[in-house]
Amino acid sequence: MSRETGWRRMAPADLPAVMAIAAVVHPDYPEDEAIFAERLRLAPEGCHVLAAGDGALQGYLVSHPWPAGAIPALNSLLGEIPQGVANWYLHDLALLPSGRGTGAAGAIVADIARQAAETGYTSLALVAVNDSTGFWRRQGFRGVHDPALDRKLASYDDAARYMRRELND
């Protein structure tokens, strides 16, 4: 990752570029802009963009508190963040090809893990798609097999995996 490229907090004005990145990186998992706008409103501390020196966005992370073992349905509004949850959910991490291989993805995952641990969360969780389980394993996540979760994962694809990382390590 060059010195000119870095992560910053997402702003509402970033949403059109975030949607364009999502269309490129996750064409099989389309979500409405309202989904991203709601996550940004509910958990701004979990929403970040990877900005190049010229301001062009190369990626984003959308994350928020959510109960462990639960998967928010694709393209659906949350309404609110449940109170008292100890798990931080990584809803979507997407980088354009220009942002990959730079260490940027690992850096934001480390930052979110640190932030979550410092604010009392005990785990991170996500659904790995697009053959990304290897990346997530390298970030300390492990697959969770649960028949109820497996049924929910069917809305993604056969390769989708629910993964979790404990933060007390």
Notes on the protein architecture:
The chain is α+β, with helices and mostly antiparallel strands and 169 residues long. It has one domain (6-67, 84-166): Aminopeptidase (3-Layer(aba) Sandwich), CATH 3.40.630. The protein is 29% helix and 24% strand. It contains 5 helices and 7 strands. It has helices at 15-25, 33-42, 104-118, 133-138, 147-153; strands at residues 6-9, 47-51, 57-65, 87-95, 123-128, 142-143, 161-166. The protein has a 7-stranded mixed beta sheet, sandwiched between helices. Strand 4 (87-95), helix 3 (104-118) and strand 5 (123-128) form a beta-alpha-beta unit.
Strand order of the largest sheet: 1-2-3-4-5-7-6
CATH homologous group name: Gcn5-related N-acetyltransferase (GNAT)
Put simply, the count of helices is 5
Unreliable residue runs: none
Largest sheet: 7 strands, mixed
Mean pLDDT: 93
Could you say how many structural domains there are in total? 1
Structural class by sheet pairing and helices: alpha+beta
State which percent range the strand residues make up.
15-25%
CATH class: Alpha Beta
Please state the overall shape, judged from the principal axes of the Cα atoms: globular
Distance between the termini: 27 Å
Gyration radius, in Å: 15 Å
The fold-level CATH name is Aminopeptidase
Order of helices and strands: EHHEEEHEHEHE
Named CATH architecture: 3-Layer(aba) Sandwich
- Estimate percent helicity: 25-40%
The count of strands amounts to 7
